[in-house]
Automatic annotation (TrEMBL):
Protein name: Xanthine dehydrogenase family protein
Coiled-coil residue windows: none
Organism the protein comes from: Bradyrhizobium jicamae
Pfam families attached to this UniProt entry: Ald_Xan_dh_C, MoCoBD_1, MoCoBD_2
The Aldehyde oxidase/xanthine dehydrogenase a/b hammerhead domain, residue ranges: 32-146
InterPro entries hit by this protein: Ald_Oxase/Xan_DH_a/b (IPR000674), Ald_Oxase/Xan_DH_a/b_sf (IPR036856), Ald_Oxase/xanthine_DH-like (IPR016208), AldOxase/xan_DH_MoCoBD1 (IPR008274), AldOxase/xan_DH_MoCoBD2 (IPR046867), AldOxase/xan_DH_Mopterin-bd_sf (IPR037165)
Region listing for Disordered, in residue ranges: 1-37
Gene3D superfamilies: Aldehyde oxidase/xanthine dehydrogenase, a/b hammerhead, Aldehyde oxidase/xanthine dehydrogenase, molybdopterin binding domain
Amino acid sequence: MNSDRRAGPSDVLRPRNVGAPIKRTEDPRLLTGNGEYTADRKPDRPLHLAFLRSGQPHARIARIDTAAAQAAPGVSAVLTAEDIADDFKPVIPFSRMPSYYATPIVPLASGKVRYVGEAVVAVVATSRYLAEDALELIDVEYEPLGAISRAESAVVDDAPLLHEAAGTNVLIAREFKKGDVAADLKAAAVRVGGRFEMTRKAPLAMEPRSYTAEYDKRRDGITLYTSSNIPGIVRDAVSESLDLPGHRLRVVAPDVGGSFGSKGSLYPEELLICITARKLRRSVKWTADRLEDVSSSSQAFAEVVDAEMGFDKNGVATSLQADVIGDVGAYSIYPWTCGLEPVQVVSFLPGPYKIGSYRGAVRGVATCKPPTGPYRGVGRPIATFVAERLMDLGARALGIDPLEIRRRNLVRAEEFPYRIASGIIWDKTGFIECLEAAAEAAGYDQLRREQAEARKQGRLFGIGIASYAELTGIGSRIAVAPGMPINTGSETAKITIDSTGAITAAFGVASHGQGLETTLAQIVADDLGARFEDVRVIQGDSDEVPMSTGTYASRSAVLGGGAAKHAAKILQEKIQRVASHLLEANADDIEVTDGKATVLGTDRMVTFKQIAKAVYSDMKTLPVDARDELSATYTYDPINGTTAAATHVAAVEIDPATCFVQVLKFVVAEDCGRIINPMIVDGQVHGGVAQGIGAALLEELIYDEDGQLLTASLVDYVIPSAPEVPVMNVVHVESESAVTGGFRGMGEGGTIGAPAAIANAIADALSPLNIDISILPMTPERVFQLMEKAKPKSKGNADE
């Protein structure tokens, strides 16, 4: 896979570690089977959980008979909502948003069930096998209340209510406005629009959700090992729910086998396993099987967008309006709320473009499905899909090349900071630079010539472009989820040199595969003046820093890296002060590099180990007031965060016999600011694009009219394999952001841009047949149906 870096300001005097393609320090243990995941924990004589899950989409629980299960071999307890009612308080995903209803989060269904797969009864036994056997002995009587399988049917007047207290199935409604959209659309030279949809997706991490609650009798405390990327947020929520002080509840995210957002929320099972461990005073384990993971973990997308865009005669977009209905599933999620996904669709819909007037309205609607939650890209994949389809439709209507119409509409360098029509402010980022770099790397003009030749041969060859922008590393001034009351806009780093001279850097962020142990160590090593191999990074442990949150919203490099730089600088100054006494020199004349402090212009030096010994052990070397603990903690808040951007170019060919879409070429030009580790950045781009290919061509959770999931296994839910993922060319445009370190987030970008670029390429390939693309994934079946519909009907058929 090719990668190219365009020189930027950060290429001047680049430090030794930041910017270097250092191999990931995590990989040796992970590749040799020496990692430790939650399911690998081996507490003393643990009990095991199994859940009886609802087979009904929406029903009242009339009766539960657990007597036979309680008497089954190895069973320690059988728990229903009634059995644990006094052991917790419901967790409420609060929000300041108007027109929002917060559904309570409880460990087990109480009163009624709202989707197939919702946990109703928990069995605790000495093994998972015995717990599963006991599930078969439980008898639950349901009274069906009517399923709601689609968001459109949930808003009709006679639809059953999933949450009677809400009085409606619309759990969230928002609208963004700027200017007079109706007048501008009326005055437009060209108006283009349509109904666009991205269907439900499963995040499908390699490791299913897994929890181990280890009970400590000595302190009547619990350590929850969880496959989560928000251990600090989970700790605070469980502590509040169970009325368990934070010093008696430790939450650790060990090695985590991927998340893609699905492990970024509090789950009922996390509450239940802690309640069970506390109630039985025993350690308890649970790992989802694949069916449980697909059918009960949070899901993605599921929006329908009716949108229209107006252009003047020169191809400049003047106006945009959209009405969005989002299928948010049965519950809100904590802490992000059910507004996270659908509200961000209308927030980001104007994208990186200068659109004068805008109206975006959204409704998040409850249905009989698992909740929608964070998924790589959050709202922006479908927002980008819609905006980029409209750009291509406008280009076609005006006879302008798709590349040129974007040149005319993207925010340019001299126009930053730029407030888009929904109110989001982009800081100075390489919008145009990414567009031009992607076109150059793709050989755009040559691709068009190849397309013309392919069409002469009757081949269905298409080229698609997608440009997008996203907020990353968001600070305290902007809520990650609209109206969310908890602060997720800061991050803490604590760096310590112990009495042996060893360096430990602890962070609140939690890795689930991004290589944070490596990239954060690179930053610490450079800014502290240490050797990279001497830095140990700890993350994902709520006990390690005063306030731990986690990893989400492309924030780890921006916030974790910013905190690391500040803490490292404070600690370096302490090292200089101690070294000035030991070397009898002015602190300003001390240079700290490679794990030692040296007097400038001399060979007089002391190592970190010698400095640590002077501070902690040798009481005669330093005056009392110079024995400053070699530790520094810093909480960093970037206030607004920063903007990342990219342009994707895809070339595809459609086989008219099989209707399969083959991605022949894929180019990404992205601006993630100053690059910490180009090898890891490339890996994130490649993985994101692969996931975006799945969203564009293959992946779909299909529910029938009765709310039953029809694609609950990997036989039916299809993800990309190696043949579906092309060789990629990645170009890096490094324009440093104003945040500490000049970093921008980039972990979600591949998934944001790829679906739209592929959709535009498919539409371009099918344009000779007058076929348009408005729904993703564009599976072979959908391509076939579109091509059949487009075939001219014979007179005989017409007469019939």
